[in-house]
Amino acid sequence: MRMKALAPVACAAVALFLLASGSSFLIRKVRAQQAPGRIASEIDNSARSIMPGTRPPMAKQGKDVGRVSPETPLQGISIVFKRSAAQEAQLQALIAAQQNPSSPLYHHWLTPEEFAARFGMSDSDIAKVEAWLQQQGFSIDGVSRSRNRITFSGTADQVHLAFDTELHYYTINGKREYAPSTDLSLPSALAPVVQNVTNLSTFRPKPRFRRPKANFTSSQSGHTFLTPKDVATIYHVTPAYTAGLTGTGQAIAVVGQTSVSLADVENFEAAAGLATKDPKLVFVPGSGNVAEFPGDESESDLDLEYSGGMAPGATIFFVYVGDSANFSVFDSFSYAIDNDIAPIISDSYGICETALGSAGFSQLNGVLAQGAAQGHHHRSLW
Q1: Is 145 helix (H, G, I), strand (E, B) or coil?
Q2: pLDDT at position 333, please?
Q3: How is residue 27 annotated by DSSP?
Q4: pTM for the whole thing?
Q5: What is the largest CA-CA distance in the chain?
Q6: Does 110 score more than 60 pLDDT?
Q7: How confident is the model at residue 326 (pLDDT cuts 50, 70, 90)?
Q8: Which domains are present in the chain?
Q9: CA 202 to CA 56: how far, in whole Å?
Q10: Residues sharing a CB contact under 8 Å with residue 360, sequence separation 6 or more, in sequence order
Q11: CA-based nearest residue to 197, from 357, 346, 71
């Protein structure tokens, strides 16, 4: 599966406003707009709305083996806000203009703060939701720079009371995971502005790494090995190197859900005849302790080694989460975009749309649209 930002949506009035003037003053004025408040009524727990698609489909395929203990602590839960129809139309028009060479907004990328001002939630709405979460007993961990999510922590019982669902354990393919047992519900005053509530499940995307079986290189192991130079030859990259295009001045953020050993990267660089150049490690705050997961570690090693090997002049960042079971590479991906870590983001994890669920799919597509507006280029091997 290859994910991409939503296709541009036609909105004549907005598009004409964005494209009509070439003045830098207009561009600054457009960027300075503030999002209006959208939560008009009191947040009342007695009036509730179901959020379709918020129960992970994988839970439906597993065997229910009982409820998660009510006292179980949960870190890094997030309420993710969706844009209003007007904001979404404006965003899609902006993305189209940013990609149009004849537009005054061509390649005028937004910062996370500029994105927040136009497409995030207002200060008053953020304060209302934070107050409601605290009334449910949750502690607030933070608000994203783009002001489109609030992260908080609590217990499984508090999740049950706030979102009217129990967390249950499920066994599938010999592994035990937990997830909501039903679709979540919210106070009706919040339902129109909330896209998803994340990190209530331990179902994670899977690494795509597989050991090749063909016997092209090693008669001893049966594995196929390609160095960065081999890949450059196969894909005709060498002329770019000859022209001096080695990635100098560029940055790539590789996202993952494990720690890595820098010695592995250094050994690869030595074997491939490359200069030693360690990636810069960026740990997602609040995602648990730094930990290595074998299958994920092999995936991330491969991503880092070939990103750096194919673009030796570029700065490589590795953005990763810790051992909290409800965090995944999607958190690394969102963090890389929200903190504007690098203009190029590389991931090679995969999950089918049917396993992601409609709420998760919409949320991820929203993150990709934010990345497009901020000038991020997403390379995926899904």
Answers
A1: coil
A2: 95
A3: H
A4: 0.85
A5: 71
A6: yes
A7: very high
A8: 12-36+43-205 (no CATH), 207-350 (3.40.50.200)
A9: 10
A10: 53, 56, 196, 198
A11: 357
